[in-house]
């Protein structure tokens, strides 16, 4: 039976400031997969994530990125996010003055309007937020704090899960979500991935015990900016 692919990368080569980082990458991610992107540090994993998400610092020198049947090779980051690509980055910056609540409302409203053509009411937003916050056992007072300011590594991962569940993307890229998280938070991440049946996941991890809990459906391994052939 032929697989349906939500992401297809064809002959992709990427550079940064003229330095080649990825060469001739071919990779497909099946719909609803839990796909592990493996490889040693410096193998090109984070560069590939940047290319998929549309980070403007990186240059696509060759190849195409097809997402959900659409060529997004030259789409900007915002468009890709609205189309359903979520990125849980390894290092998320602190944003003093921007509260978690304001950030979530802006993000949820943008996605809702893009998908439905209508505005998201405050009532709808708060109902959804309360449901997700309760499920993740996130303290209400976190909502009035500035993004990541004063948050521990594990708390930042829980905020990432809150953002993930509020946007409910088609495709979520999680770059080492287990890094800086204790076993309790790691378990919460695993449970969330398992429960979000309509979201395809591409994740990076160096911890075998974490990877084993997720039980990846597919694995792509990078080495020196190339895909290792099985």
Protein topology:
Blueprint: E1 5-16, E2 19-30, E3 34-38, H1 45-53, E4 59-67, E5 70-71, H2 77-83, E6 85-88, E7 95-99, H3 100-116, H4 122-136, E8 146-147, H5 153-167, E9 171-175, H6 183-195, E10 200-204, H7 208-214, E11 218-223, E12 226-227
Parallel strand pairs: 3-10, 3-11, 6-9, 9-10
Antiparallel strand pairs: 1-2, 1-4, 4-5, 7-8, 11-12
Described by the principal axes of the CA atoms, the overall outline is globular
Poorly predicted runs: none
The strand order across the widest sheet is: 6-9-10-3-11-12
Estimate the mean pLDDT confidence: 93
Helicity, as a percent range: 25-40%
Number of domains: 1
User: How many H/I helices?
Assistant: 7
- What would the CATH topology be? Rossmann fold
CATH class: Alpha Beta
Could you explain how this protein is built, in words?
This protein is α/β, with parallel strands linked by helices and 230 residues long. The protein has a single domain (5-227), classed as Rossmann fold (3-Layer(aba) Sandwich), CATH 3.40.50. It is 36% helix and 30% strand. The protein contains seven helices and twelve strands. It has helices at 45-53, 77-83, 100-116, 122-136, 153-167, 183-195, 208-214, and strands at residues 5-16, 19-30, 34-38, 59-67, 70-71, 85-88, 95-99, 146-147, 171-175, 200-204, 218-223, 226-227. The strands form three sheets. The protein has a six-stranded mixed beta sheet with strand order 6-9-10-3-11-12, sandwiched between helices. Strands 2-1-4-5 form a four-stranded antiparallel beta sheet, with helices on one face. Strands 7-8 form a two-stranded antiparallel ribbon. It is globular. It starts with a strand and ends with a strand. The model has no long low-confidence stretch (mean pLDDT 93).
């Amino acid at each position: 039976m032929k697989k349906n692919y939500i992401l297809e990368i064809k002959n992709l080569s990427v550079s940064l400031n003229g330095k080649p980082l990825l060469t001739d990458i071919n990779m497909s991610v099946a719909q609803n997969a839990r796909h592990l992107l493996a490889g040693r540090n410096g193998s090109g994993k984070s560069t590939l994530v940047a290319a998929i998400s549309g980070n403007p610092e990186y240059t696509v020198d060759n190849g195409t990125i097809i997402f959900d049947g659409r060529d997004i090779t030259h789409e900007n980051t915002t468009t890709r996010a609205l189309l359903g690509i979520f990125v849980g980055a390894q290092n998320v910056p602190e944003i003093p003055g921007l509260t978690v609540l304001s950030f979530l409302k802006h993000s949820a409203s943008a996605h809702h309007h893009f998908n439905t053509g209508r505005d998201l009411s405050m009532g709808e937003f708060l109902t959804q937020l309360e449901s997700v916050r309760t499920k993740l056992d996130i303290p209400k007072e976190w909502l009035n704090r500035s993004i990541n300011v004063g948050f521990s590594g594990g708390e930042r991962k829980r905020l990432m899960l809150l953002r993930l569940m509020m946007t409910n993307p088609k495709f979520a890229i999680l770059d080492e979500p287990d890094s800086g998280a204790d076993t309790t938070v790691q378990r919460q991440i695993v449970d969330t991935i398992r429960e979000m049946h309509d979201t395809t996941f591409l994740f990076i991890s160096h911890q075998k015990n974490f990877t084993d809990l997720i039980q990846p459906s597919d694995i792509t391994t990078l080495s020196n900016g190339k895909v290792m052939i099985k």
